[in-house]
User: Fold these one by one.
Assistant:
Number 1:
Amino acid sequence: MAEPAITESVAGIVQSFQSMNHHGKSEQQYQDIFRGSVSLLRKRLDNGVDRPLPACDPAPADRNATDIRNETPYRLGQSLLPGLRGELQSLSLALSSPSSQNDCSSWYDGILDTLMEIDDLVDRIDASIIAIRADHKPWNPHRGMYQHMPYLDPSRIRSLVCQVKELFETELLQVVTTCSTFFDDGFSLSNPSTYNLSITKGTNDCARMTAISTDKINALIQWLHTSMIKLVEQEWQKLVEHVDDSIESVLLDIRRHPLDPYYDEPDEETLQFIEIYEKPQKDIFRAAVPLLKLCRIYLNQLARRSISTQRLIFLDPSMHIDMDQLKKLFKSTHQAVSDISEFILAIDAGCEKEHFVEAAKMLLDNVVGVGGLSPLLQEYWDSLLESTDPGVNGEVLCQARQWLKSWTEQFILGILNFAVTTNDPHWR
């Protein structure tokens, strides 16, 4: 059975120590607080993420709990894990670079501050895992009018829990254990001969363990990122299927003919109605179909329904899309599909021409307008080009830009054709 969660924090120990004896503290006092802090951190790592895995069909959680859990994977990959990686590297660097004798307190305080940050991040990661596991019912894509990103499914939750648990109890625990022995050989800043020996052995061991932990964290961040991208692509594939069905419905409407043999022979009044109303409306239908098909192509490209499809969002670690950018893109995609649905609904309902025109304008704005799909993709690609990461592949970025440019040209032509067909003065 798992032990109760640790409520004491490294911050509590360190801040209490720092508030005492403002006239100065001895190295021995600093080292004792260091050992106490490391001991508490080891206990937290040993007990972290040690909870039963969720059942297959848990009781539904309330909306707030679900929303918190829904954001958690993104926070883990975007800030918490990278933050932990950075603090571990800072600790390793600090231990390898003792300050001069005159700056003894600053050096020890800096190390203790880093331990506080590591402890806080471990606690927040542990709390995040609890939030994820609190409610893992199957994601409903219609919940909240497409405002929410997809949830991790139960199998991915289990994988995430196991990976974080392994990180805590193996790699990270080894770093902390190695650091705990740093002052065991009589280390003293006032005696260079003692700290040179500690630096030679202790910092090398700490640096090695830190490098192993960093690799593990990088792999976990990559796994989270790839999982999120694949979940989003799966949802986009469902949207493509929805658009496919809608386009087929429009095509059936276009193929319908009032002189079907099942109908009686129309009288002159009916023929006049057909000439005045049905034919112009079908012309609008036909002008709308290329726009709908182009939207389908765009969604297909995002969803990567074929492995030969040019990627618009990349999985390579050097070309990660920012999670905030991904969420904006996900929301914008669903808004565009909502506009497509409104457009098709107007067609099916036989609405007035003005309704078609307004729906087409909304579709144009949400695809190529400010804040639309294409500008969001361009913003993502621009951020990659501005990166100093040598792993950024300029060639695939160029190919993606070329694909989007070609698609946009066709889409604008389709919009212009639709404008001419509707003969609406507001397009001019």
Number 2:
Amino acid sequence: MAASRRVAWPYQSAGWSDLTVAAVSGPAYRVEAGENYALSVAMYLEVHPDNPQPRSIRRVADVVRAGGLIAYPTDSCFALGCQMGNSGSLDRLREIRKLDANHHFTLVCRDFAQLGQLVKINNSVYRLIKAATPGPYTFILPATKEVPRRLMHPRKRTVGVRIPDHRVAQALLAELDEPLLSSTLLLPDQDEPMTNGQQIKQLLDHQIDAVIDSGDCGTEPTTVVDLSQDEPQILRAGAGDPSRFE
């Protein structure tokens, strides 16, 4: 097993003291009294859709900070999320979704202040995005130096960004105080994104570290708009009305 590092893992509230989590790229491991055993089940937390419990949000944020991979609700559908700079969690996300090198990842932001640090925006693009956010849109734009190169499109050096209109997602982003690397929770053998938190836990129990459930989400992913060129281009029509960009 890889060398271990000390972290404050969110299971402390369930009776765990300080835990040691091994720095492995797969599911997290925990150690107590000298014994190693796999964290074989994902943390499952039900939260209120309009008033998410702060304690639950903090626990999930701690999972993300410790390198965990989570499933969480948005204003379009469930998404997988992890820290922007954590390569191990990114590899796990890629494996679950079977993503190739050309996939546009999305950086989910709390507000325009965060978004503006990650992508290059001129005045006309700013007005377009401002009119459509928060909401179920993902915008493809040239990335700044704040974005790790492994998250950019290999040729275009672009990345997806969005600001969700969902209270649970916003509460999590506020607690993290950093963007969340995300991808729609659409599995390779499925035609539509997963919508039920309990089903997500059952299916991905050994592959992710936490599930936030605030009730069923929709089945449409975001509308993806490429704003990296002179004219907007709709790459995917989804939950957001694409006509405003046509």
Number 3:
Amino acid sequence: ADPLDVRYNVIQWVHRSTRGWSYGGSINDPRTGEIIKGHVSLGSLRIRQDFLIAQALMNRPFKNDDQNYQPMLELALARIRQLSAHEVGHTLGFAHNFAASTNSRASVMDYPHPKITLKKDEIDFSEAYATGIGEWDKVTVAYSYSDIPSDQSEKSYLSKLLMEAFSDGLYYISDADARPQGGAHAKAHLWDNGTSATEELKNVLAVRKKAIENFSIDNIKSGEPLSKLEDVFVPLYFYHRYQTEAAIKSIGGLDYTYAIKGASGIVVQIISKEEQEAALNEIMHTLKVKTLKIPQRILKLFPPRAMGYERTRESFKSNTNVTFNSLGPVATASNMTLRLLLNAERANRLVEQYALSESNLSLNEVLSQLIKHTFTVKTKTSYEKEIAHTVQHSVFQNVLNLIATDDASPQVKSIANETLDTLLTMLKSNKSTFNNQLIRELISFRKYPERFKIYEVPKIPDGSPIGSAPCIMN
């Protein structure tokens, strides 16, 4: 049969030079809108990232057996199984639901991150991916394809389906609310897990910490160059990247639905100060020296790259030529957190929310906590001191950017400037070579603000796609 024949629904396996997105498309009858053919394209290298994540998180998988890749393969195949369901969902006309992960993985139409936990102080992969469709998927299938009972009107039957789903706590929030870095919905995220994004970030950081403790030369096979070990470490070091973004959305965040007239339940409400403070406290852990520090025993495993194993878009970036840059990942990871936390749209919302009620979290509190946690840190070694300096410079630059960007309101700029006044006093009271440089940069910024250009840290290696398609093709 010809795969382009409209009579056949097709799932095709596509080869690329690198991993890429998958797609679920359909052909519709232009007269009726009826879907008459579904066509899914799955990239054959899609499982690479899951395989690497498992390889990095496992405790010495190749210590005794170079063929011990079955656990990694099982996790990767579980992802392909879930991905296939996701793309078939697109062919049936279903859109992404990026709030489903907060309802016990209620939909295959979310982008799932592997759910990995600690059990008895060991990393557990048993619940990495769900099997079968979720509760929201059952609702969408029933809504779209049910035969309407003869004793009910279509409107009342479909309304009842949705009202029952929402009363059961199911959410539906799609792309426009989940993808922007300045997004406001506290439940709509890509590549996250957990009813509480904050609690799951705590779990993710604990898993990451344990995996870094375990990481060794036995995370690659015998005879493989150590250049490959460096690449295996990439998804481990940045393992918290997506859950951090999810937790940050609680800051200046909202809970809302696509409400309609006559429906009950939440329309829109500000996330409580307690929840926002809990999120902020956990986010501060992503900026701690002990979180960002790569142990020196691991650094000794990363020599200059072997010939034929040059850095790629999925490798750590380096500004130290051929050598591994131990401070580069620190700059990348800290900036990853800060560009999200100090996003201008998020800062604008914090000002607005505090204006509506002083019981809400304020931008001033966020900036004060940020300065306190990063500029009063005590270090034990020169290595830790330079890690702290790297984080501090990233904080400094991102606060400057809040003032420089046209996207921030005048109120945000005034609060950010006041924060820098406080920081300037701190720096002058404890002068050092590094602090003096920050003072000079601040003086220059205030004298020539039009010259400001944010310092470019090493680009974070590609993460997506772990999961699903970015669009539906009709």
